[in-house]
Amino acid sequence: MNMANKTDNSRRKFLQKLGIAGASTVAGSALLLQGCSDSNKASGNKVKVLTADNKLVEVDVAHLKPGDKIQDLSYLQKRGREGIPGKKFVMVVDLAKCKNARKCMKACQSAHQLKPEMHHINVLEMEDPVKKTSYWMPKTCQHCDNPPCVSVCPVDATFKRQDGIVLIDNERCIGCRFCVAACPYSARTFNWTEPKNSDKYAEVTYDMELNVPQKKGTVTNVPSVPTVCAKENCLIVYRHARMGCTTLAIRTKIW
């Protein structure tokens, strides 16, 4: 075989391998985009979502579908600790719209393995001393600028992220309950017994951003974090509480 034939054969093999690699790359890209699909007709209802590389984009809700749950504990721990650079999250409650439906409470309890006597969000009746009237106020964790729960935690289980959110790492929590005593809003509770539906979460990888699965002997608090398109469909802070609200009293903001 002369040199020209050898060169031609080598080039052919190279192009064949390149074709296989190219097809794999395209297939991989399709898998990465499974959270947002163009197969459905646009509904005209758009929401802001957070991409995997922390970019805020606007998409039609008809193009959203859930992706696979992340099973890597080390990745979930790292993501939960880091937060999102350059962003601040907040939940806004319009007290004029709250009618004490308490559906936000039920939605939150259902999503986070909370028993009926346990609350991440609790609707209280408050009195206006000036107008001499009462109103309803959903009470949650306030995610303080200088949270006392963080300063008293001896094992760095409670921490404040760079995007303003205060979370609990139940992989670190030793159940000392110092943070429960320090919280001025009584926003934290303790799992004295096995959490609700613990058997259903036996094989679920712990995610501190979602605060599930809950664990006996640890503190629990509202996980007011944004969710990503490919994981939970759309960017929502206090997602389950907001979705449970029937009067749109609970809204979300990002800046």
Describe this structure in words.
- By secondary structure, the protein is α+β, with helices and mostly antiparallel strands.
- It folds into two domains: 1-32; 70-228 and 235-254, no CATH class.
- The protein has seven helices and ten strands.
- The protein has helices spanning 3-32, 73-82, 103-111, 148-152, 178-182, 229-232, 239-244; strands at 46-50, 56-60, 89-93, 122-128, 133-139, 158-160, 166-168, 189-190, 219-220, 250-254.
- The strands form five sheets. Strands 1-2 form a two-stranded antiparallel ribbon. Strands 3-10 form a two-stranded antiparallel ribbon.
- Mean pLDDT is 74; it is low at 11-37 and 225-255.
Through-space gap between termini: 68 Å
Element-by-element helix/strand order: HEEHEHEEHEEHEEHHE
Rg, rounded, reads 24 Å
What is the 3D shape? globular
Helix content: 25-40%
Counting structural domains, the number is: 2
**Count of extended strands:** 10
Task: Strand order, main sheet: write it out.
Answer: 1-2
| Class derived from helix and strand content | alpha+beta
Quick structural summary:
With 255 residues, the protein is of the alpha+beta class.
